């Protein structure tokens, strides 16, 4: 019999966003909708282990949410009447998540708040996962999400797709949400890989590309996600262990998906509006097109990272550029660049990169300390295994 907690986690991931969207549309209140969903999830957590998993867990969760909403909002006649009319939303509406995405990404909200609220409400990421993605403490992220929900309610932000002349100003936030969703799915906080999250990210990006076919960055992001997904089969060994790029069997990569992504990049390039997602996709394409690790065009990758730093400067991009410098200017130059990067002390890959470079330079005690620091900062089992193996070197 399936484990009740595992089933509930899957149902919440797949359906909580849809349920929240239906409640938000009727109630016009993010906080109330999220509270109702959370209460229904808690009830399931208490009852399913004892009573068994329902035949239709999503419908059960919806029914309980509706009942709990009536209980919580009984004193508010207008909202009670609306909630009583709420019907099972049925099969997912392709526009539903896009409407919720654009609602959360309203320009009245601070940019980081837009992204955090959307990833939590629409995509079901936890506050801990979001804190990791933003490199901030979990309490800070929780406060940011709460403020964003209050702002939406107070400002009366409508639940709808924006008019054509409003799409552009909301696009950056929506793209950032989809990008972070892909990152969490590709190598998440606590699991090696979530195909559901990366598939959801690709579906959202493809839906945006249909809505905005002449937006170069939309095409670039879709290409980037497709390139990442094309390489998933080669990223893990038979036991589920993480394989680094240089150790992967490239014959297992999905060449059809790679070709499709490169065609998207070509379309985006013809629009002559370069941006960060196109540049990131171009970097991944350099790796995807190399038949062997030894064939990687590192000078081109360094150049692309330098361009990326102009469009979207960040410490993480500087870190990736430093890794590429290892193959053009040597280990010492790469380490010097890494050590000059501020603001990444809570980022496990910063310390893992330092550890590898220090080891290559023969500074083994320092390498061990950096590896231990990286290990303490990641909860992902696949990454933990790699770092643990390095400690045995």
Automatic annotation (TrEMBL):
<dbReference type="Pfam" id="PF08281">
    <property type="entry name" value="Sigma70_r4_2"/>
</dbReference>
<feature type="domain" description="DUF6596">
    <location>
        <begin position="170"/>
        <end position="268"/>
    </location>
</feature>
<keyword id="KW-0731">Sigma factor</keyword>
<protein>
    <submittedName>
        <fullName>RNA polymerase sigma factor</fullName>
    </submittedName>
</protein>
<dbReference type="InterPro" id="IPR013249">
    <property type="entry name" value="RNA_pol_sigma70_r4_t2"/>
</dbReference>
<dbReference type="Pfam" id="PF20239">
    <property type="entry name" value="DUF6596"/>
</dbReference>
<keyword id="KW-0805">Transcription regulation</keyword>
<comment type="similarity">
    <text>Belongs to the sigma-70 factor family. ECF subfamily.</text>
</comment>
<dbReference type="InterPro" id="IPR036388">
    <property type="entry name" value="WH-like_DNA-bd_sf"/>
</dbReference>
<dbReference type="InterPro" id="IPR013324">
    <property type="entry name" value="RNA_pol_sigma_r3/r4-like"/>
</dbReference>
<dbReference type="InterPro" id="IPR013325">
    <property type="entry name" value="RNA_pol_sigma_r2"/>
</dbReference>
<keyword id="KW-0804">Transcription</keyword>
<dbReference type="InterPro" id="IPR007627">
    <property type="entry name" value="RNA_pol_sigma70_r2"/>
</dbReference>
<feature type="domain" description="RNA polymerase sigma-70 region 2">
    <location>
        <begin position="12"/>
        <end position="78"/>
    </location>
</feature>
<dbReference type="InterPro" id="IPR046531">
    <property type="entry name" value="DUF6596"/>
</dbReference>
<feature type="domain" description="RNA polymerase sigma factor 70 region 4 type 2">
    <location>
        <begin position="101"/>
        <end position="152"/>
    </location>
</feature>
<dbReference type="Pfam" id="PF04542">
    <property type="entry name" value="Sigma70_r2"/>
</dbReference>
